[in-house]
Amino acid sequence: MIKKAALSFDKDLFKRSVVYNVKTLYRKSMEEATPQQIFQAVSYAIKDAIVDKWMTTQEEYEKQDPKMVYYLSMEFLMGRALGNNIINLQAHEPVKEALEELGVDINAIEDQEPDAALGNGGLGRLAACFLDSLATLGYPAYGCGIRYRYGMFKQQIRDGYQIEVPDNWLENGNPFELRRPEYAKEVKFGGYVNVYVDENGRSNFKQEGYQSVNAIPYDLPIVGYGNGIVNTLRIWDAQPVECFRLESFDKGDYQKAVEQENLAKNIVEVLYPNDNHYAGKELRLKQQYFFISASVQAAVAKYMRKHEDIRRFHEKVTFQLNDTHPTVAIAELMRILMDEYYLTWDEAWAVTTKTCAYTNHTIMSEALEKWPIELFSRLLPRVYQIVEEINRRFVKQIEQIYPGNHEKIRKMAIIYDGQVKMAHLAIASGYSVNGVARLHTEILKKQELRDFYEMMPNKFSNKTNGITQRRFLLHGNPLLADWITFHIGSDWITDLTRLTKLKVYADDEKAQQEFMNIKYKNKIRLAEYILEHNGIEVDPRSIFDVQVKRLHEYKRQLLNILHIMHLYNQLKEHPEMPFYPRTFIFGAKAAAGYRNAKLTIKLINAVGEAINNDASICGKIKVVFIEDYKVSNAEIIFAASDVSEQISTASKEASGTGNMKFMLNGAITLGTMDGANVEIVEEVGEENAVIFGLSSDEVIRYENFGGYDPMEIFNNNSDVRKVLMQLINGTYSKNDPDLFRPLYNSLLNTLSTSKADTYFILKDFESYAEAQKKVEAAYRDEKGWARSAILNVACSGKFSSDRTIEEYVKDIWHLDKVVLPLKK
Ligand SMILES: *Cc1c(COP(=O)(O)O)cnc(C)c1O
What we know:
By secondary structure, this protein is α/β, with parallel strands linked by helices. The protein contains 32 helices and 25 strands. It folds into two domains: 65-80 and 115-465 and 809-813, Glycogen Phosphorylase B (Rossmann fold), CATH 3.40.50.2000; 472-694 and 760-799, Glycogen Phosphorylase B (Rossmann fold).
């Protein structure tokens, strides 16, 4: 069956276009061009195929004037664009053929593209998946973010340590981006606020003595799958407002010009590489206000091009705040409505509180954004006045509901104790607050945000995260995608719930064999990647047991590696014990200043070094740390995984989305009852996952009683004792026995009063080791494993970001689908 859109893709035109681009861009023939040059030429040819659809879509939005969502996010972890664009144009087959005819391998060309890594991890990738789903479902949407000159750092491993290398992703230009200086916006920082009373007796607030930067938008096309829709991701670059005119400067002007130039240079220089951690850096607040002010100004300007009455703004625009990072949008919108459109406070408030909606991504206190008043008011003097007034009115409201209850004010005020609390601002001023998995939302309502929930229960809802199957199955795992389509047709590409039709194949032996054969081929592909990038040989017949995600103590990579140390101890003591060969695969970046996280990377590599080179265990265990975990190699890793390690301390992982990508590719979850794992197990059935560890209720109960005593476990469990002693006796650090002592101390600190093992690693160790035994036993049952793996795929339909987006649309945004007119 040939797809309609595939027919509409002009293969010969594309071929000519590639050859022409190579010639005009580089004055070369195809034979002379480098792979990077061919990548550029191919990308421009694909962009040509996108641009008409992009214009048509935007013209249609202009004509139909639908309500739009602006997804405001500090992070968009997009990965590579070329392969995804080809797939969503439904042009993969003709493009692959055309390139073959030109003597070029499509995969080698895709490999030339640097990842657009404008994000840290799950939060940024969620934004990217949402854009894909919005376009595919035909919803009018803008992504708004920052065009960081340097994205997430590249990770190198030297001597087992992480080295951070700058990610100069724009080095060769970005063929898909469109610079649009005609839509530049000015963003002002600092100075002071003057009040002028005009002839009508109205107070006009004016920011003066400020420094400003020009925000220049760059637009990236977001191609919907097979529907002709192309939405826009708008990322903002910063430019100085004026260039030097040296002669005409007096000293003060000169100083100011230099400062403004530096402000522009610094502001978009680099993505902060912290995941789930607030560092309170001034430049970070500048980044936030920079892209928010530009985006809100642009949204208002766009609205006013077609509408008269700004008081109806919320009927056409909604802002979704991806965590608290964009929360300053609330005050910025108030400012524009009052100071530039002369709305009264009440009018502006009515609009703002119907425009802004907030997504909470974490309950961990170290991640909550709280800006010191001094910093906030100095940088954003007018915005701060508005936040103060929002706070004043909100506190008054609390007092009315809870008269005399100062405790409520202390816990709920937006400004308290010298700090501006961004989550409180977002909740008080938005029309919606959502968590990202059922368990997470319940914890928010019962614990962290309980007071807010009690005061405004109707604002709260759950929107369990999702992922796009177009990237993480159709593009990342073409063998499995083809197998699925062969059996149940291709509808799953835009309706993932169709995968339930695969259930009938779970017990079909031929299907099981085909399925496991595909997994085996994907394991060979990953083994080749590992050999090429790590120089380690791994056996694709071994169990691929994988933990890839940001390195964070709550995610408990330390539990995983301690257990590997334990397994190795057992194998050394009992060389003949039954043991199914296992390849433990890690991938994780640590924030540059996160000591224990970086030390965990070193430990993983040190343990790997020892085990991988110990001939006495006959290669039964291999430990691989994949350098530079990112979206492009993630696609290869998920496709090749047997076991999905989702072992966070229960209650700490808001949702997780890596867990969903593994499931979609037929890996079996080894996890705690945390985040979306709970819903994964609910979908696939307990018998097709391996669950262990404390429940979130148990963890929270311990925490409320000041933790637990890890010494008890140390004293009573000799396996645990042995691996802990190996952390401090030089087993994995001959030349420096104290190297891993900080990790030991984090688990067992008996000296100081600081709490030990706050992530319950030792508490869950035994349960984890038992669960790992179950994994091995399950894998030995080949048919049983294949059955479970197929059922995981078959039951993963809920976890499409298409489902998530439909829920946001129905419950929060209230958008209509745009239908494109039929082409003549
Ligand atoms: C999905 C994804 C994540 C999030 O993984 P979690 O396991 O949910 O933390 C992080 N990084 C990349 C590159 C991803 O693709």
